[in-house]
Amino acid sequence: MTDAVNGLRVTRAGPLALLQDAGRFGVRRLGVTQGGPLDLHGWAWANHLVGNAWGTPALEVTFGGLELVAERALVVAVAGADLSARLDGAPLAGWQSVSIEAGQRLAFDTPVNGLRAYLAVAGGFAASPVLGSVACVVREGLGGHDGQGHRLAEGDRLRVRAHHAPTGRGVARETPREAPAEAWIDYRQPAVLSLLPGAQVGEFSGESLYRAFNASWRVDDRADRMGVRLTGPPLHCRVTSMISEGIGLGAVQVPPDGQPIALLNDRQTIGGYPRLGALTPLACSRLAQCLPGQEVRLKAIATERALEAYRRFRSAFA
Description:
The chain is α+β, with helices and mostly antiparallel strands.
């Protein structure tokens, strides 16, 4: 990290702020999970707005409560949830790049719209990769700003890659970028989550399948980066025991109580509950912004349509 310099200092840590790149892949055979941003959509836009390439580390801020002081002039962007971000006490606009000067104070307060905000800095945050990624997984003690899977704590310093403004201009005088209106999401609205039916879907009763895709589900307060429990009508499956098999992102497992669990980035690598299917990556992103008690619905989607939607999303960041 010879090109890295001190960029931000943590003066108040908040409950959960983690450094995340695109995730850790090719290591699940070792029992190591993927990590990475729960809301891929918000993370990608934050990086894009400051000119970073796909995969550049950004900061995932959950619930707010984080306060940072700039140690040099920076270009930053906040996307994803509205956590009442402020710059020196004044509201900070989201979904656009903003220039800040050394000594200015950036703070995230409480959720207004959504749960997780993403802070990107031009050039990207710098950290040493572990197993090919800086994605922070607290449970496994891997990645993050210190390489040991720790959340940010008061006094921590975030290093950034040296950033060179175009045509020799100073970093604080770049032309701001703003995301198009269609990229913004009102996370307070009921979410419709696209789900690819899975291998065991035919083992659920007809009544359960009707309920799964026609009833409303509530996000339970038992939710974290590993997964989100949904509460609603119980689902019944004829399969009562299985040999554990690999678990992919978005897998919707149904344990014996009939209440589905959608597994996210920090999930376990294998599991033995029958699966209704798997949420698409963008459906996982949407679910990650839902607060406890919010209403969601499941919608079956064909593989071709899911791939088309994901490719269209990725093409914005090519």
